[in-house]
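Cross-check.
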Amino acid sequence: MENILDRIINMKKVEIARMKDTQEIIQGGSPFSKKSLIKSLSSETKMAIIAEFKRASPSKGVINTAITPVEQAKQYEKYGASAISVLTDHSFFQGSFVDLRNVKEAIQLPVLCKDFIIDPLQIDWAVASGADLILLIVAAMEESKLNELYQYAKKYNLEVLIEVHNLEELEKALKTGAKLIGLNNRNLKTFETSLDVTEQLGPIVKKSGVFLISESGIHVKEDVERVKQAGANGILVGEALMKSKNIKQHLTDYRLQLERVNQI
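Predicted model, tokenized:
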């Protein structure tokens, strides 16, 4: 039976075919200067926050369509976010590469292109739209494709956040040599969420010496404390911030003091 991730990937293949059939194929780099999340994590003494802009999701439906990406990103930057994540998937999250470019032009923080990337063409678009980082999801592709896309991104001097949900995926991610591993607390096949994912896999990530980002299912300070104890250097938060009536308070609550930082 087709699960949610399958539906997303199948639609992504259709979208990529359309992109390839148009004259709007973007290649040749970016007019924007690069910002490094890894560099900031290397000296960070508090929990880093990748604050996300997303209008909707398959599991929650419409989250917030009343604010623009630039308005939201500026609030994130003002109140202490370390980086901004922008959903560029349109079919399931109502995002676009235009959103990504607009945010990049408006702020000075690193910007993550959050999408279901399965083809180099999507990386071309991410680069041209100003991405400093991209997301690669192990569950969305074969290991050979993961390695291919990771190396393709490195040619553009992009940083790569590799997302995993279980030990098998984590082992594949670590073999790429990536310095950023995201533990997704949301199962992309069922969209059920549990911080147990970070608590179980976090110590393995930390032992490998790479930076750990805990993704999804983080709403209150107590959630941040749990993933901090599992070794997280940072968190990626979308829904809680998109619904927040007080972004400053949320971001302040999330910025917990860290005991130590990685040395890469």
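The chain has one domain: 33-254. The first helix runs from residue 4 to 21. Passed to J.P. for a second look.
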